[in-house]
Amino acid sequence: MKNILIILTGGTIGMKSVDPQGVVPSKDFADFLRSFPQMNSVAEIEILEFANIPSPYMTPDMMMEIAKLIESKATSYDGVVITHGTDTLEETAYLLDLVLKSDIPVILTAAMRSGSEIGLDGPRNIINAVRVACSHGAIGQGVLVVMNDEIHTARDVVKSDTGKLEAFVSEGYGILGIIDPDKVIFYRKALHRDVIHTDKLDTNVDLIKATAGMDDRYIECSIEHHAKAIVIEAFGRGNLPENLMPVIRKALDKGILVVVVSRTNTGRVLPEYGYKGGGLYLQRMGVILGGDLRGPKARLKLMALFGKYENAEHVKDFFIHSIV
Predict the structure, then answer these.
(1) Which is the most buried residue in 21, 23, 89, 321, by most CB within 10 A?
(2) Looking at the domain 3-186, which fold is it?
């Protein structure tokens, strides 16, 4: 029987409804897992309480602490399961996927329903995550996310709905596999994975979403606060309003990296449109087109790259050559 470490960070999976507060973190979750009878037939389990916070409280620095914790424990376990809140789970999963050196399975899971709700999904998700962590097919696949009987890559998965059990999806690419009652089944491998071995981050990276008629105040704010990089979620294939060109040029002239991704749910940005503000025009200005990465993950990738290299040209070179 395999040895699996379960790291608790908080989230809805460990919450209960308390009058009159509403749904809040519970202190009973760790004890519940230790006495969870179905777990004993799956693996030898050790519980480690890292935090007990709502996932909006999670920060990139805390994510890096979790990565260091996993590295320090990796040789003692066959796999690691992390319970997490759903709101920022995809970001923690992706940052861990970027920086972890160990090849042991690392699986994040969560719950869309608290422990006080009918039809709670947390216990099933945890059991499934442990089963995947024990699976030979998970070795070398990078950090995975297990939700609703499905296996996702950290790079592709997003939370697509505020409340449905099937909220986590890998739009455009599909799941890696499934967890059935009799076995864990992997249907494909993750072919595209960025690896940035670093033990520190530079969190001075901003994310801005493009909207119709927007002005330059947010980019100006990033410049004033000496951001190392600015990620802009642009329209469609990577296009922006014409009036933003002067402030983007200003940012580039100050040595700030500007990365454009799409605000759409799927698809790549491309140097296709040559009008002022189009993707081709932006690329010719010196803007980096970020491929198929979505904004929050592009931001984390830049944090890890600046933590590793510090030099903006090295960061730019890595980012460009790792774009899918």
Answers:
(1) 89
(2) Rossmann fold (3.40.50)
